[in-house]
Design brief:
Largest sheet: 6 strands, mixed
Strand content: 25-35%
Number of helices: 8
Distance between the termini: 13 Å
Number of strands: 14
Structural class: alpha+beta
Helix content: 25-40%
Shape: globular
Order of helices and strands: EHEHEEHEEEHEHHEEEEHEHE
Strand order of the largest sheet: 3-4-2-1-14-13
Length: 286
DNA sequence: ATGGCCGCGCGTCGCGGA
């Protein structure tokens, strides 16, 4: 029996958070919870500043698309998890798509790629940093809805070509009231408003499954906590980072959890990583 | 305790984040 772990983490500046990232990857490995694929969001750096070498020394190949100050996404894959035919950057990241086709955007928010593993059949990864939206009624909110509509169309096409698909990232949407620390205070606001939740449901309507809700979870599990007002200490958070999986992956998905540990460290990201485990009977591509 | 943040940039406050 072999396992594959796929994670998402908004690091809120990779420059500041690289030590946390390396420490977390190492800690996971030490705990027999090695991360095989990691989608990162909010790199906040240009491509020339991406820490390719440091991550390579940690055993990971990197696909990334950054910009100055804002946004930026990456997909990391553990080299040792890839088949022997996919051992360098050019062969590891196949069928790369940068941003949403047909959606003109100067913000770097989406990477899609296909990975070929030793442990299991190929998997399509779509890593997104969904727009924040600021507040309903603003231009940024309109942009968020347009981005979501374009993504919805893109995912329809992707599912036709890639039955084994994970749509992961910082969705900036808390899908249900149970994903919000104080639902009454947040009614109609950004991250929980009806149109945003409507788009989240529309992804489920395509057959995607919220991996987190496949399993019994303790109440009040969140993935983001505001830096202000002692959000983390009060567990005043939201669950806005998600891994949606296609039906073909549902049967082998055996766990999904938020790892709060890195949020407790000094100078943390305001988001915690979320991890899914895929369990396969045996190796298929030795 | 009802309120306190953080990262970035030709910056020393304003913006964006969520």
């Amino acid at each position: 029996m072999s396992e594959l772990r796929i994670a998402t983490w908004n690091v809120n500046s990779l420059k500041v958070r690289l030590p946390h990232l390396l420490k977390w990857l190492e800690a996971c490995q030490k705990n027999q919870q090695t991360i095989d694929v990691l989608g990162l969001q909010e790199l906040k750096l240009t491509d020339d500043k991406f820490p390719v070498e440091e991550l390579a020394r940690a055993g990971y190949l990197s696909l990334f698309m950054g910009q100055k100050t804002y946004n930026g996404v990456a997909v990391l894959v553990r080299q040792a998890s890839l088949t022997h035919l996919n051992q360098d950057v050019d062969t590891a990241f196949l069928q790369v798509q940068k941003n949403i086709p047909g959606f003109v955007d100067d913000q770097q928010r989406l990477l899609a790629t296909t990975l070929h593993f030793k442990q299991t059949q190929p998997i399509r990864i779509i890593c997104g940093y969904f727009p924040n939206g600021q507040a309903p009624g603003t231009e940024k909110f309109d942009y968020k809805l347009k981005w979501l509509e374009a993504l919805h169309q893109f995912v329809i096409t992707e599912l036709q070509h890639h039955p084994r698909l994970v749509l992961l990232g910082d969705y900036n949407i808390a899908p249900q009231d149970e994903d919000v620390h104080d639902p009454a205070a947040w009614v109609g606001q950004n991250l929980v408003s009806e149109p945003e939740r409507g788009f989240f449901q529309s992804f489920l309507g395509l057959g995607l499954i919220d991996s987190f809700r496949m399993f019994t979870q303790a109440p009040k599990i969140f993935s983001w906590w505001d830096y202000r007002m002692m959000g983390f200490r009060r567990n005043a958070g939201m669950r806005i980072d998600h891994l949606l999986i296609s039906p073909a992956l549902k049967a082998i998905c055996s766990a999904c959890h938020v790892d709060k540990e890195p949020r407790k460290w000094e100078q943390p990201s305001d988001h915690a990583p979320v991890v899914i485990t895929l369990t396969q009977e045996e190796s298929v591509n030795p």
